[in-house]
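Try this one yourself first.
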């Protein structure tokens, strides 16, 4: 698919990933409608992009909607554990009812839909690294379940819409993504550490810090989403989109200290409940079928992220 003049609905487009994705779609000539209830996102994310090819609609995807479209990209859902656990019922409704509403809208208009799913569908994985064929190890009762199980249920509904109704559904399981533009109060590890280091505060390490994640720079994640949206013959398929460069939380803390030049302490805090111990994507499928792989090294990505946060904090952002 060439995005030029395509009518593209980006649900959750005022969030962190959304801001970067919408910018890229507009650069490629798309007509973009952002649907967002500004739960964790903000109109400021889209500042500078206004024009007659972008419209922004204040809408909660839990409510049905109808809008002519060629492609729907569903990013709507708080992604930070702090935010998705603050109102678990709303998180689950957003994931399940919101995704159902969007895929039904895509069906009515013969549109394609790309769903932002998550590595959290693998839970606390017993298989390492995680390939798309792995079923996961997920608690359906714990505090993360609203997000993990909500995303799993959304995958189920969308893939059944593909199998039963022939809707062109594509699923991206995003792994931890970071970069410029994350909200100052986002609550995820990279933004927390960068903000803390720049403010001269101790870095909050949850648990012993040996747990791992694999961090993908946001432009790489967006490239993966675009490749998935544009590719031919990918309907009904699921892809890991992430960077296999696996690091412990302690390594991230150390890197942030080095790159900010800030000699702050680390403060141990209790481990998060049901926190996955390890997380690393197997991206063989995305390499083969999308011709996609991440390009930005962690150190470079963190430097760009730190520069962005430094600028915003200096300008008084909170
Ligand atoms: P974010 O919280 O910055 O953005 C989510 C956006 O969705 C926000 O603009 C928010 O206001 C909007 N939203 C939330 N509930 C909504 C609702 N009911 N109706 C309409 N809009 C709603 O998160 P992000 O990091 O940009 O993540 C985007 C998507 O990617 C999410 O679906 C997330 O689950 C998925 N994802 C992200 C990561 C990551 O590391 N960033 C990893 C895995 C999956
Ligand atoms: N984490 C941490 N300090 C923080 C925020 C997070 O040690 O201030 C840890 C968290 O417990 C987890 C890892 O960093 O082990 C990644 O957490 P994040 O919230 O960024 O993403 P997710 O848990 O969804 O992968």
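Now uncover the answer:
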């Amino acid at each position: 698919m060439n995005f030029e003049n395509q009518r593209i609905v980006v649900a959750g487009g005022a969030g962190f990933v959304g801001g970067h994705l919408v910018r890229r779609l507009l650069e490629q000539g798309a007509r973009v409608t952002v649907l967002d209830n500004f739960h964790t996102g903000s109109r400021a994310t889209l500042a500078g992009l206004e024009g007659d090819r972008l419209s922004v609609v204040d809408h909660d995807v839990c409510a049905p909607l109808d809008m002519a479209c060629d492609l729907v990209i569903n990013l709507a859902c708080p992604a930070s554990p702090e935010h998705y656990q603050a109102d678990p019922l709303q998180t689950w409704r957003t994931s399940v009812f919101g995704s159902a509403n969007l895929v039904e809208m895509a069906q009515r208009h013969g549109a394609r839909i790309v769903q932002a799913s998550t590595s959290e569908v693998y839970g606390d994985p017993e298989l390492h690294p995680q390939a798309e064929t792995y079923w996961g190890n997920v608690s359906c009762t714990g505090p993360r379940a609203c997000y993990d199980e909500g995303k799993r249920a959304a995958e189920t509904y969308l893939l059944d819409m593909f199998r039963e109704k022939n809707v062109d559904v594509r699923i991206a399981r995003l792994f931890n993504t970071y970069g410029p533009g994350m909200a100052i109060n986002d609550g995820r590890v990279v933004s927390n550490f960068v903000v803390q280091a720049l403010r001269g505060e101790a870095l909050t390490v949850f648990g012993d810090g040996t747990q791992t994640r694999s961090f993908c720079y946001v432009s790489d994640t967006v490239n993966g989403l675009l490749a998935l949206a544009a590719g031919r013959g990918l309907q009904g398929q699921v892809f890991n989109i992430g960077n296999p460069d696996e690091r412990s939380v302690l390594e991230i803390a150390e890197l942030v200290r080095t790159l900010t030049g800030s000699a702050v302490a680390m403060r141990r805090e209790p481990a998060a409940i049901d926190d996955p111990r390890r997380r690393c994507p197997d991206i063989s499928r995305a390499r083969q079928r999308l011709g996609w792989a991440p390009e930005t090294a962690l150190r470079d990505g963190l430097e760009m992220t730190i520069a962005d946060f430094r600028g915003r904090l200096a300008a008084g952002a909170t």
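Discussion: The domain at 7-177+217-244+280-295 is CATH 3.40.50.720 (Rossmann fold). The first helix runs from residue 16 to 27.
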